[in-house]
């Protein structure tokens, strides 16, 4: 019985090593920048393929940043509206790399970003 259990555990370890773990959670940073003091409102979060997820609503002033933790196959999404006179830029980072970005200078202008995690 013990030998069978040891063999099964060894096989499972080999499979995980070859295929990899798809459930790795990464930290994504949403950075709101632009003209200092520009007010904004918006939302950000992570949505799974079935539509389940967590979306947070925020109101803030440039600069600001928000963190989202998500596993692979999830969509990171954010929408921000410029409530001031000036530039509103939004970037999504993972592992220090920009993976999505856009901006607006229009009062009432929206920045909408969405990216699927790997």
> Could you state the oligomeric state of the chains shown?
single chain
Termini separation: 39 Å
Count of distinct structural domains = 1
Q: What is the makeup of the main sheet?
A: 4 strands, antiparallel
Q: Give the helix tally.
A: 1
Low-confidence runs:
1-21
Question: What CATH first level would be assigned?
Answer: Mainly Beta
CATH topology: Immunoglobulin-like
Give the overall silhouette: elongated
The SSE order reads HEEEEEEEE
Number of strands: 8
Main-sheet strand order equals 4-1-6-7
Q: Would you tell me the structural class of the helices and strands?
A: alpha+beta
Supply the CATH architecture.
Answer: Sandwich
Overall description:
- There is one protein chain.
- By secondary structure, the chain is of the alpha+beta class.
- The chain has a single domain, classed as Sandwich (Immunoglobulin-like).
- It is built from one helix and eight strands; from the N terminus they run H-E-E-E-E-E-E-E-E.
- The chain has one helix at about 1-20; strands at about 25-35, 40-45, 55-60, 65-70, 75-80, 90-95, 95-105, 110-115.
- The strands form two sheets. Strands 4-1-6-7 form a four-stranded antiparallel sheet, with no helix packed on it.
- The longest helix has 18 residues, at about 1-20.
- The two termini are about 40 Å apart.
- The model is unreliable at about 1-20 (pLDDT under 50).
Give a quick set of tags describing it.
Immunoglobulin-like; 4-stranded antiparallel β-sheet; 1 helix
């Amino acid at each position: 019985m013990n030998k069978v259990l040891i063999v099964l555990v060894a096989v499972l370890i080999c499979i995980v090593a070859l295929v990899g773990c798809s459930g790795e959670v990464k930290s994504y940073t949403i950075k709101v920048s632009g003209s200092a003091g520009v007010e904004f409102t918006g939302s950000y979060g992570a949505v799974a393929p079935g539509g389940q997820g967590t979306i947070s609503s925020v109101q803030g002033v440039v600069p600001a940043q928000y963190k989202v933790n998500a596993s692979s196959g999830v969509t990171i999404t954010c929408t921000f509206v410029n409530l001031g006179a000036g530039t509103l830029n939004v970037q999504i980072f993972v592992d220090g790399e920009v993976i999505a970005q856009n901006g607006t200078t229009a009062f009432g202008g929206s920045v909408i970003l969405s990216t699927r995690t790997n």
